Amino acid sequence: MPTGVAIRDVREQLFDAADRILLRDGPSGLTSRAVTTEAGVAKGVLHKHFADFDAFLADFVLDRVHRMAPQALALREAAGRGTVAGNVTEALVGVFGSVAVAIVALITFRDELRARLRETWPAGVPVLTEAASMLGDYLARERDLGRVGAAAEPQFLAAMLIGSAHLLFADRTGPPPTRADVERMVTNVLP
């Protein structure tokens, strides 16, 4: 890109490039040069908008976590409709069918990124803890409606579902699990 040309939504352009690289090449392929090349911008553009590459990555991860808000709202509004297993399955496929699994690997891969995220996200892995919170809230609503057992503990169920789904989706070398695979896991976890 020529110098002096205004770039619209540069952060989003860089974040979208990071998504594509993570999905294609994994965390080891995610470098500042790879991001700027993929985004079609000069390398200096990234450093103009972020203090360093780990600051970029921290903002990228948090942006992707905040993108889960519409999915959380949709799941919350699904309480009482459809089946609980079907709603949970759709939520898990939505979370893990996105860049979430690659973000978990990225956070695990980069010590400095984990340290930066701890400044604003004190516990857990941001994408997974947000997904667990989303599922826990939904399951609590379903329990209140009598569609999940009264003795169920939604936050524990949510953690089991997130952990189990992560194990299903974590293998980047084979085909992703089918919706039926995810639903079978969900029906085995839910009481």
TrEMBL record:
The keyword Coiled coil does not apply. Keywords: DNA-binding, Membrane, Transcription, Transcription regulation, Transmembrane, Transmembrane helix. The chain crosses the membrane at residues 91-109. GO terms for molecular function: DNA-binding transcription factor activity; transcription cis-regulatory region binding. It comes from the Bacteria. InterPro entries: Homeodomain-like_sf, HTH-type_TetR-like_transc_reg, HTH_TetR. The keyword Membrane applies. Residues 31-50 bind DNA. Residues 8-68 form the HTH tetR-type domain. This is TetR family transcriptional regulator.
